[in-house]
């Protein structure tokens, strides 16, 4: 395909009908964790929707939301880039979106894709239509939606120290919570009951599978359960729900967390949330029995698979993670693409 020839046949709802295009999968998260999930899932299904956190307040995204009052576009940009068409056209536009300016002026640090998304939002006056338009430009193999219709702030109760020296502090802002030196006890959204995008809720309700994680636990994974309409959809959907655990604790946000601690914190936030499968890399599990018990408490089976790159870094391998998802989907749905009872 020529760099000057855009992909044809793209439509924002492509992949939502027809046996060959199932299962319908919704991936929830943000940042690099969601990008890893999407990169894997695109090998398993063509009916893929990303529902993305919109609480980023740092860097290029933070500057644009402060100056223009828009949703922070950075995590949305990364999700779109992860779904780009595997052609010269798609790769070129992905690289355009991901390009950052480096200068001594006001453009320094801005990602081109963030500016482009903000532009189409201003021109179209519609967040979802704007993202669909960028998706069409990329030939995206899936759809990207914001989890909420307004920019969000994250507020966390953080404990510093231990024992008699412990004290609590209030930390506000995703960029600050992510690097806090204390132990996060709980998180809240501001506003506390933000409106979810109807398209995001509909995608969850219509899905065969919903995948949570991996990613920054309190600032990318948990927030979806704090948007009331989206949380209600996650609790009532007939979709199977899978959780992908991180390969390591995140310095600051989840320092000292075991694999089971991640699952316990999710259960503390949403004790009635039913899970069907928990995907974990054995090398990232300190106590398999403890994790299996936590998974069973949430109603889930534990699926242990090597999903890391195996080079000592905390990076997921795209094809290994895709294989784990395929195993999970086939176990519950029979042949991938056909629901079994």
Automatic annotation (TrEMBL):
The keyword Transport does not apply. It comes from the Bacteria. GO terms for molecular function: LPPG:FO 2-phospho-L-lactate transferase activity. Pfam families: CofD (PF01933). CDD domains: YvcK_like. It is found in: Cytoplasm. Keywords: Cytoplasm. One of its GO terms (cellular component) is cytoplasm. InterPro entries: CofD, CofD-like_dom_sf, Gluconeogen_factor. Gene3D superfamilies: CofD-like domains (3.40.50.10680). GO terms for biological process: regulation of cell shape. Belongs to the gluconeogenesis factor family. Required for morphogenesis under gluconeogenic growth conditions. This is Putative gluconeogenesis factor.
